[in-house]
Design goal:
Immunoglobulin-like, 4 domains, 5-stranded mixed sheet, 5-stranded antiparallel sheet, elongated, Ig-like_dom_sf, Ig-like domain-containing protein, Ig-like_dom
């Protein structure tokens, strides 16, 4: 058997003056306790009854939990006594991949195994379904998908480890460790009070559902997950552009970045309102005349293999050899009003907000809009 009785140890964990120790045999075992050991043990001051584990404490706990050879109760002659306990519940990650296993721990520090067995009821729940009492499953069917182990890295630091195997979408929710304290009076359990119910979430990782990559807001075309070519050719004029990439549907939110050749572009990341997507907006960057550069949006989901999605523009920056024709035919004298019209040719694919007016005396640029007494407008005209 995995128990010995030693009256020589001292402690005063509960502040109890008189203790009774009762042992109940659940199954036959060869050695009976001596009659004196069945009797009341009088504890004066700080003397304390303690069970010592032969071999390893883990083996003993498994022996007691699963086969229930011996059940020991500790009670106070004066009545009910409340004890102080702390509990910790955690998992290495709340996210899990489909088909993988999810492991959670319920830790009860600074407490002996005997105390846990005698005074506490510790149960694992998956959502609303109770799985165990300590590490004993309520039905054999549960052992097809769940495992439970007792972990004892230290004598006074015991954890119950629960493992859910082959996790699927329907398993999402919580694993909860529920702890009750048992109260005894006159050798009879009179009630159990809830001490703690602590949970860890089970969240299934999901891949990116869609991607939309715009080279600039001035360009209507977007690359999506349906564009399967490795490099999508795009011609632009020299200027400053701010690529934008949006991905949707992943869990957790995807990591999104934009590369300009081998350089990571600076920018800002935004969570979309529905929290089902992420958008990365790069800072406006100069694209110089007569150059070629690859601009790539890349996104992946942390911890999910083969989740990366990429789309790439092969950008050809044209030479800035545009043709201009400007008139001031509607000017009004006395500085009251001037309407200047400027036509720009060979700007196919260039939006109005990329064609600016520059004020000669200050060097200030004006895109379409209103600026005090200056109004700037732009429209596309048919090619003559």
């Amino acid at each position: 058997m995995c128990y010995e009785i030693d009256n020589g140890k001292t402690a005063n964990n509960y502040g109890i003056s008189y203790l009774h120790v009762y042992a109940r045999k659940w199954e036959h075992f060869t050695q009976d306790l001596a009659p004196s050991q069945w009797n009341k043990i009088l504890v004066n001051g700080r003397k304390w009854f303690k069970v010592q584990i032969r071999n390893t404490l883990e083996d003993c706990l498994i022996h007691v939990f699963r086969w229930k050879k011996l059940n020991i109760f500790i009670s106070s002659e004066s009545g009910l006594v409340r004890s102080e306990y702390t509990f910790k519940v955690w998992s290495q990650s709340t996210w899990v991949n489909p088909g993988d296993s999810y492991v959670a721990y319920c830790n009860i520090p600074d407490v002996e195994a005997l105390d846990i067995i005698s005074n506490l009821e510790v149960m694992w729940y998956h959502n609303s379904q109770q799985l165990t009492n300590l590490c004993v499953f309520l039905s054999s069917e549960l052992t097809l998908r769940y495992l439970c182990n007792v972990r004892l890295p230290q004598m006074y630091n015991i954890s119950l480890e629960i493992t859910l195997t082959n996790v699927q979408k329907t398993d999402e929710g919580n694993l909860s460790c529920v702890v009750y304290e048992k109260f005894w009076k006159n050798k009879t359990k009179v009630r159990g009070d809830l001490l703690a119910m602590k949970s860890v979430p089970i969240q299934l990782r999901e891949p990116i559902k869609s991607m939309r990559f715009k080279f600039d807001q001035s360009i209507e075309f977007s690359l999506t997950d349906e564009n399967t070519e490795a490099l999508h050719p795009l011609q632009v004029f020299p200027g400053r552009y701010a690529p934008t990439c949006q991905v949707n549907g992943s869990k957790p939110s995807a990591n999104v970045s934009i590369m300009m050749d081998s350089d990571l572009m600076n920018g800002r990341k935004f969570d979309l309102d529905d929290k089902m997507g992420t958008e990365f907006v790069a800072e406006e960057t100069d694209f110089r005349s007569n150059s070629k550069v690859n601009v790539m949006c890349s996104a992946d989901v942390d911890g999910l293999p083969n989740s990366e999605m990429q789309r790439t523009y092969q950008v050809l920056v044209r030479q800035g050899d545009l043709k201009f024709k400007c008139t001031n035919s509607s000017a009004i004298v006395n500085n009251k009003r001037h309407k200047i019209v400027c036509e720009v040719y060979d700007v196919e694919g260039i939006a109005c907000n990329k064609i600016l007016w520059k004020r000669g005396d200050t060097g200030e640029d004006y895109s379409p809009g209103s600026y005090n007494n200056i109004n700037v407008a732009c429209r596309n005209t048919p090619t003559r």
